[in-house]
Amino acid sequence: MYAYALFDTAIGRCGLAWGPRGVVGVQLPEKTDAATRMRLLRHCPNADDTAPPKQIARAIEEIAALLRGEKKSLRAIALDMSRTPAFNARVYETTRAIAPGQTRTYGEIARAIGDPGAARAVGQALGRNPFAIVVPCHRVVGANSRLVGFSANGGVATKLKMLEIEGWRAEEQMLFEELA
Q: pTM above the 0.85 mark?
C-alpha cells in the first residue's frame, strides 16, 4: 500500500509519498496544494492521503526542521530506490553525502561515482530526482559554484533560497575550494 501526506514547511507545503520499502517520492511546493499533490502522485498514482506512521512522521519533521535552518542531514530517511536506474541511484547516494550548507559540482559528483565524463548525465539524473531535498539536488551546482539547473517550482531562485536557509554563501564556498 502506498500513501502520501502534504505538510507545511518554511518554503511552503511539501509532499511525501511512501510505501512498504520507504519513501518513494518527495515534492517541493508547487503554486497550489493540488499541483503539489499531482506532481507527487506521479511516483505512486494509487496512493492514499493518510496520516503518516511514526517513521514517516519523523522524516517529515526532519525535512521541516532542515527548511527552518536546522542542520539536518536526512540520511536516516529510508528511500525506496527499487524503480531507480542504477546510475541514478549512485548519483543520489553520493549527493546525499553533501552536508547542509555545502555544495558540490556536477563534475565532482561524476568523479565521485567513478565516471568523470558524466557531469551532464549527473545533471539529468538530478533533474529526475524523485526525492528532492532528501537527495539534496539543490546542493549540486555548476562549475565555479554557478547556480544552474533546478527543476522545482521557482527554478534557480528556489535553489538559492534553500541553500541560503542552510547557511550557504557562494563566496565562502569558493574560498573553501581555493584553500583545499
A: yes
Cβ contact 173:142 at 8 Å:
no
Please tell me whether residues 55 and 99 are part of one structural domain.
no
Cα(162)–Cα(180) distance, integer angstroms:
25
H or E element, residue 4: strand 3-9
C-alpha cell recorded at residue 102: 555545502
Query: Is 166:101 a contact under the CB 8 Å cutoff?
Result: yes
Quick: pLDDT tens for 63-119. 999 999 998 989 999 999 999 999 999 999 999 999 998 999 999 999 999 999 999
User: Could you tell me if 63 and 91 lie in one domain?
Assistant: no
Confirm whether 52 is domain-assigned.
Answer: yes
Between the alpha carbon of residue 35 and those of residues 29, 56, 67, 83, 116, the distances in Å are 8, 22, 20, 23, 37
Catalytic option among 41, 98, 109, 137:
137
β-pairing verdict for 140-141 and 104-105: parallel
Is 44 labeled as catalytic in the residue annotation? no
> How many structural domains comprise the chain?
2
> Of 32, 67, 102, at which residue does a domain stop?
67
| CA–CA separation, 32 and 29 (whole Å) | 8
